[in-house]
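Weekly structure sync, notes
Attendees: PL (lead), two postdocs, one rotation student
Agenda item 3: pending single-chain targets
PL asked that the sequence for the first pending target be pasted directly into the notes so everyone works from the same version. It is reproduced below exactly as submitted, 518 residues in total.
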Amino acid sequence: MLIVSCNFRNPADNLKVIFSFKSTSAIISGQFLDAGTGLPVEETEISLHIQGEGAEYVLDLAGASKTDFTVENGFVTFGIDENVIPTEAAPVALNIIAEAPGYVTSSQPLLIDKDRPFQFTMNMVNIANPPDGVGANASIAGQAGLDGALLNTISLNTTEPISKAGARLSIPAGTVITDRNGSPLTGQLTTTMLFYSNLQDNALAAFPGGFAVTLEKNEVGARESVVFTTAGFVAIEILDSSGRTAKSFSQPAQIEVDVSGQTLNPETGASITTGNILSFWSLDDEKLEWAFEGKGALTTPDAAGNYKLGFQLTHLSYYNLGWAFNFEDGSACRRSRNVILRGISDYTQLNFTLQTQAGRFLRAGAVATNDSIFVLKNVRASTPVVLSFQAFGNEIGRVEINDLCAAGDIPVALQAAPEGRSDVNIKVSAYCKNQPELVLRPTVPIYFRKKGTSTWYYAGLMTDGELTVNDIEIATTYEVKVTYGGKTKMAEYTIQVGQAAYILEFEISDDECPEISG
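Predicted structure, written out during the meeting:
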């Protein structure tokens, strides 16, 4: 642990020693949201595993190497070793894998390319209560013998209620099902299948890792970076009574997936039609890389206007149907035009949303408010989009862009913060139950929200126990949340005229204090 400063109070103040430390470079904070409700996943613990080339540099906030975290209340914070400075030329690449009871296992790649706070949001799908645009079906169907061979055929259907589109899976009897290590699944099997529509924002927001992806294997077997346009995707999981997860089949299973007739073919600009050729890819859920699996032609639509695409599969994964655009032929670019944000200094917290001009979700995230130049990485070319910016859920700027990959900067004038706002200083300290003389001033992210609302907003990175937040409404009550030392603490404040500082102090348990205080 690095002690940045150490001060001694007057003995009359009980001689408290104040530690203020930061043993990491970039500090990374994440929210895990229920894709259906938009609220943090708070009712169950999330097991978070960090993989990837940069995983060896991941530390907890006490400076200890750590890649497995237990996430409570839907928030996590960790850092990168202070001796590793992320840059665009030498980024730190991480793969985030989150598991929680009752939720689909979710994964997301992170590319840390600057030595500054980094935020991410992961949308997790609750199988029993999926978001609009997702159909889910979990069935205790199928029995496997001791050798892993199915004693009966597994047939499973799922339908998304809005578009009436879905998917149908059939695994023939006699198929030997094995896990990632080649061990057979035995006994009673539970099969879960989810269908994600390409027409609903909540479903698209849950796409694993976003649409800018790495292909481990493209159509000719080469490695390639591409941008997906999806026509829908499915996730399939099979577990046996011992908790083993299926990975491979000894013979092909058959799946048929619907594609809504409202889908636009990005290669023609017109609605899809019978005979259109779509590709499909599978996801390696550990490396978070996709592999080309094949192509198929759309069949005649059904009464609901949904086309069909059938294919065989020999392993379980996410499967994406649609189109891929690469960087070599100019159909995508690695870095968009500069978007110049005028008036950004008025705001501490800022988010962006990128949509097609038809209103389809493409991506969303946080904006670094210490830089007026905003850039998107890995986007499609020649695609009209709408880029909007929000502060605390309110839109404060919007621009229509015909081509993110064209030349020239794009200015966006952000609305000035309204009257009746104030800048507020938040101070946080933590102390040990049996060491009251020891006070810790953390460097951690702070989240807050108006009382009575559901959405938590990232306020910024608190440094050495202090953070100034801009654009706070006077005479309004806010809830503040900080996660530190494995504990989450909340406090409630009503912002008063003339009061510029608010203090949050909380206790750390005995078993955590030695680890933190060294």
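Discussion points:
- Residues 479 and 492 are 4 Å apart (CA to CA).
- The domain at 134-326 is CATH 2.60.220 (Chondroitinase Ac; Chain A, domain 3).
Action: rotation student to compare against the earlier draft before next sync.
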